[in-house]
Every structure is written in C-alpha cells, then in structure tokens.
Amino acid sequence: MDLKNNRTGRIAIRPFHPGSHLEAALALWNASAAAGEVVYAPLDRDSFRLKLLEGPGAAPGLFLVAESEGQLLGFVHGARKTAFLPGEQADSAPGYLTCLFVSPAHRRRGIGSALLAALEDRFRALHHTRLLCAEANPVQLDWLIPGTNGHDHNKAPGVDTACTGYVFLLNRGFAERHREVAMYLNLAEYQPLKDLQARRDRLAAEGIQTGRYDPALSYDYDTLCDRVGSPYWREVLRQELAKAHPRVILAATHQGRMVGFTGPVDKQASGRGWFSGICTDPGFSGRGIATVLFHLLLKEFINIGASFSTLFTGESNPARGIYDRAGFRPVKHFAVMERML
To answer: How do beta strands 272-274 and 159-160 pair?
Structure first.
C-alpha cells in the first residue's frame, strides 16, 4: 500500500522486516518512552524481538511499517490469539491492536491513519470482525508506574487515557467499552488489617476456613469458577494445582469446596508481587472473605521479598474499597476500546 504525502514524498506501508526496520523502530519506541508520550517500559533488541516478533500472538503480516526513501516514519502492531480457554472459539475471537507509533517529525500527515487502515484490512482478510485494545491481547507490554524508580506492571489493560493515542482512536471509530484503574502500593507503606485474625476466627465459626490452600485436599473449585463466570481462573487453578510444586494459593473453603481464592503468589524480577486475581463465590459475598484473602496475599508478598504490588480493577468495582484501605492508590486510567471491522 502506498500513499502520497506532499512534504514527505511517496510513503509505503509494508510488513515489518527485522533486518531493515528493527533499529529504527526500537529507537522510535524508546524515544517515545523517554519523552513520556507512552507509559511503556523501554526495550532492548532482545525484548523487542521477543514481545513483538516471536512471542504469543505475534504474526509477521500484522506488524506493518510506514517508510519513505528508506526512512521509517512509523509502525503499527496487531496480534491474534492462538491459545483459547475452554468455550472460546477462534472464528469469533477479536483481533488486537497492540501499539501504533509515528515519528514526531511526521505526525499529522495521515501516516497513523494509513497504518491503522492497513492493519484493519489485514484483520478483515483474516475474517475478524472486531479490533480490540484490551488486556486479553496475547502480546503483553510492560509499563512503568509514574513517580517510581522503575516499578512496573506486566501488561497494559487497554489504552492509557492520558496519551494522545486515546483521542486518536476515538476519532477513528473506536468506542470506549469500559475503564480500568491501575493501582499501586509500595509494600513498605502497607497498612495491615489490625483485626485480621479476629475476622478469620469469625469466618471459621461459620465453617469457612481461610489461608494457604493444600492441593492434597482436591476441593471443588469448578463451582466457584462457574458462579463468577471465569474460565480464566478455572484454568489458572487447574494448571497450578497440577504442578508437582505449586505456588502458594490462598483460599476460603467451605464443606469441601473453594468459595474464594487469590494467587498464585509470585514475585517478578522487578520486585513486583504478582497474582492472577481475587474472587469470592457470590453466595458467600458480604462476609469479608475477599478482604481477609487480600491481606493474607499482601503478607505473603512481603514474606517472599516483594517490594511493591500493582493491580487493575474496574472504576466502579466495589472491591476497590479493599485496595484503598490497604494503602493502594490509583496511578493510571486505561480504556478498553473496540472498533467493529
């Protein structure tokens, strides 16, 4: 695909080629990150290749560049799911917009729009009917927490509403489906729950045990996952509990089944306390189970030497109060965005 630009000359839209485009694309990425235009973490050559060229969801035909006379002016990256949870169908899965960059000297000349249009054409040819910016993108991009010394989160749950790309996408037919709040806690500032043990004792008096889950119990977790509607958490539990040495999972149990869980407990190389999520069976809501499990989780993070933790949650999610009271603070807002193709 070619387009004519009076100031730049003829611009070609073509597939990304590592030998020709990697250095310039990497420089554009890192310059944008250094200027604060995006929240993404800087990348080196290896991490750029791993995330955008070789990792899950990456496909050569969905990584496109705009160039003129051998100069890279911008690039766009799309991704497709290749691994599906039970019940998901490949033919109904959306395509994902990972990122779009245009060199500052060549903005406002239609290059970003041309790159996006070319990517959309590629997705249509692959029979996708939706294009999403969402955390389900298999290409996960680390981003940095503002005001910290390199503290990070392992994926972006949509489009940073403070960046220019948010308005750009709105102007090109994307709709905001909902917002996610990214929250952060320096674990040195954790505010422990003073009556944590008393809360656990009250739950125990109701027959609800809380704490580290023993995989040897083989309790039913399918009912929990069915009732919260999460095949993702079912798969997390299935895979973790099948391991010879599973990571710590914190659970609330009642009469042979899980009625709440959080974990698995882990620490990233950056020092971030990592977990997949937290949930409570709707039939057991209102008893403070999530609060107890979350504070047990934070204590586990501290025990394994994590220095901070991050999470994201819906703006109107009632669980946000739990995070607020533990000392978490909002640091970014992300929009989940969608365009029909």
So the answer is: unpaired
66 in Cβ contact with 73 (< 8 Å): yes
Backbone angles phi, psi at 144, to 5 degrees: -100, 140
**Which ranges in the chain belong to alpha helices (H)?**
18-34, 45-49, 111-125, 164-170, 196-205, 222-228, 231-241, 289-303, 320-325
Which residue in this structure is represented by tokens 């990304």?
A: 16
- For the stretch 183-220, what's the b/e string if a residue is b when 16 or more beta carbons lie within 10 angstroms of its beta carbon? bbbebeebeebeeeeebbeebeeeebebeebeeeeebe
Single pTM value for the model: 0.89
Q: What gap in Å lies between CA 4 and CA 15, rounded to an integer?
A: 18
User: What's the pLDDT tens digit per position in 206-258?
Assistant: 999 999 999 999 999 999 999 999 999 999 999 999 999 999 999 999 999 99
CA dist 236 → 136, 165, 205, 262, 293 (Å): 15, 32, 29, 11, 17
Q: Name the 3-class secondary structure at 161.
A: coil
